[in-house]
TrEMBL record:
Description of how the protein assembles with itself and partners: Part of a complex composed of FtsB, FtsL and FtsQ.
Entry-linked HAMAP family: FtsL (MF_00910)
InterPro entries registered for this protein in UniProt: Cell_div_FtsL
Subcellular location(s) per record: Cell inner membrane; Cell membrane
Name of the featured protein: Cell division protein FtsL
Topology in membrane: Single-pass type II membrane protein
Major subcellular site: membrane
Length: 87
């Protein structure tokens, strides 16, 4: 009986050790994946900030006015050119 108990305890100890090794290995793999995902997140946050700045620059009203005047030849109508249409 004590020999059987000794074998069971040894097998339990070995199984426990294998479980600990597997858990640590899995933890390391997940930690590396987490670090990579955090790096991608940081790069995306930087790009998002840059795109927001670019959008703010492009959408600026005086920039739109400048492009409309230079590229499209647009201008404000003279008072005589304005026609009011009433229903």
């Amino acid at each position: 009986m004590s020999r059987f108990l000794m074998v069971v305890l040894i097998l339990g100890g070995i199984a426990s050790a294998i479980g600990v090794v597997y858990a640590r290995h899995r933890h390391r793999l997940l930690f590396v994946e987490l670090a990579q995902l955090e790096k991608v997140r940081d790069e995306l946050n930087i790009e998002f900030g840059r795109l927001q700045l670019e959008q703010a620059t492009v959408a600026e009203s005086n920039r739109i006015d400048q492009i409309a005047r230079l590229r499209l030849g647009m201008k404000f109508p003279e008072a005589g050119d304005v026609v009011v249409v009433r229903p």
